[in-house]
Amino acid sequence: MISLQIEGGEKLKAALGDVRIRWVPEALAAALFQEAEAVMAESKREVPVDMGTLRNSGFVDEPTIMHGEVEVTMGYGGSASAYALWVHEGIGPAVGRPAFMPPVAPFTEWARRVLGKPELGFVIARAVGRRGLRPRKFLENPLMRRSSTMAARLAQRVRAGVERGG
Q1: What is the pTM of this model?
Q2: Of the candidates 118, 124, 147, which has an alpha carbon nearest to the alpha carbon of residue 36?
């Protein structure tokens, strides 16, 4: 899981001035949701695509507000949960871990569909296990690229949301 915590509530309050503070959590929730949607859109342009299962599994959940804290969860999973983490973080020798034997069935299906030779599934799976997979960071990279300017965008959106009344 990737977590980005934005601190500096006092700076945000100062930037907002004397606006109606009671609307801040709702406005911040809306602003964080918009930011997460923008990160996810960028991420989906970077995620590796074979059949689109991984890309289509990307999600941004509705924000939650609890005890004055706002949280937005986004990620990949669903039907791609068996391999999304492998693709994002890498696995095996490519990231300094031991060789492994991945499940053969997905490679057999890929070899059938793409190469027309399902019998190569085992060979491809074994090669992936021996070499590993390099990390792709298709979610972390867009998030990190946007993080340096995120506070300013959030402050602007929160101010606009508060001025609209929530």
Answers
A1: 0.80
A2: 147
